[in-house]
Every structure is written in structure tokens, then in C-alpha cells.
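Annotated sample (chain length 250).
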Amino acid sequence: MLSKSQVKYIKSLGLKKFREQHGTFVAEGNKLVTDLLPYFECELLVAAPSWMATQGDLHPGELVVAGNGDIPKASFLKTPQDVLAVFRQPETDLTEADPSTQLILALDGVQDPGNLGTIVRLADWFGIGHIVCSPDTADVFGPKAVQATMGALARVKVHYTPLAPYLKESTGPVYGTFLEGETIYTHPLSATGVILMGNEGNGIRPETAQAVTHKIHIPNYPPERATSESLNVAIATAVVCSEFRRRAGR
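Output written by the structure step:
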């Protein structure tokens, strides 16, 4: 049975300052927790007996067999499932995000945690192992972002650093999405380098844009037709990554 102090601790992890203080994050749901268990150190596992019966050996720091109402007390979901886990946040090494040897995603101020989680999932799908985020990008370890990754967080490393210095030090091409850019379907694309995506409302900020070497654009169809002002950043990321992998991927 979950204690009041455990419920308070789990709930506190809804706030970034407490996630940073403890170096932990919350994941919920039968599939998500199962996917993350082999990759992250589990500090606390709260699970119904029915879920535990489907698992092999479990070795969390602390295991709580959930009674009726235990998980809903601590859950961040509207419809809580059979398991909730608190994991240690992984350590990351920014030097591994080397655009001279691989394709890197960079996010400049993406605010919505759902968008961020979806982009992590897209990176996993398209074989992009590193995402480099500006410090003001949403926290990937927030409950909503973790849920939106659908387990891809286990395979994609997310780094936070000032983007302008990182991009200026990059030795490969830096592709940025701009309304005035050249259509992505005709512009030459590389199998290595950085794909830079901007904020949902403001796009790529000027100081970051200075490092962009290739401005690209996803054209609407047909060009003369009145259409939406822009695409959702996660959808735009999917289109861009797909085209890179189709033509230049390895």
C-alpha cells in the first residue's frame, strides 16, 4: 500500500524543480513501464498483482503491491492503469551528439510537452539517436512528455544546452525550417548534420538562425491555394525526417 509520503513524493515529480532535485521521473502504463524497465534504474514500482503476474523478475529499489485506489492517488493520467514507476534520469554526454557522423535533431524552444514527446518518438522511428534542445524547451522528463514518447525515451538521448554555441561548433551542415526556405523536395540533403526545428509560434529565433547553413521549407499543395499558416512542429518534424531518410539516410 502506498504511504502518504510516497504519494506526495510522486506527485511532486509533476514539477520540474523536484524532478531536478531528485533526478527522477514518473512513467505510467502497462506497456510504457515494461518498455522502460530494461533501460532505466527503477527507484519505485507501484503495480497491481495482475500486472506483476505478467512480468519476469522485478528488481526495483522499492516495490509496492498496489491496493484499490493506490495508483489513482498518485497518477497523472485521467485513466490510471495497473502500474506506475519512478525512474532515475539518465546521464547524457553532449559530445555523443556529433553531427559530423550522424543526423541530429535540434529543438529551439519547443514548448508543448506533447509535441516534444512525439518528436522523441519520431526520432526513434527514423533512427535518430540524439536530440539537442535549447534550455527553454519543455522538459522531456515531465509526465506528459514521457507518456507521449511511448517508450522511445529508452533509445533516444535528449540533451539540453544553449543551441547557438553548439551549432556554431558543429562541423556539418545545419538545416533550418523557414517559410522562405527552399523546398525540401528539391534541396540537397545530407545523411549527417543537424535538423533544427523552431518554437510552435515563433519558429527559430534569430540568434540560433545565424548558424543555419541551409534554409528549407515544406511547401503546401497546390502552392496557389489558401491554406493553414503553418504545420504543427511535430508533424513538420515527421515530414522533414522522412524526406531526409528517403533521400540521404543511412
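Annotation: The radius of gyration is 20 Å.
Annotation: The chain is about 30% helix and 20% strand.
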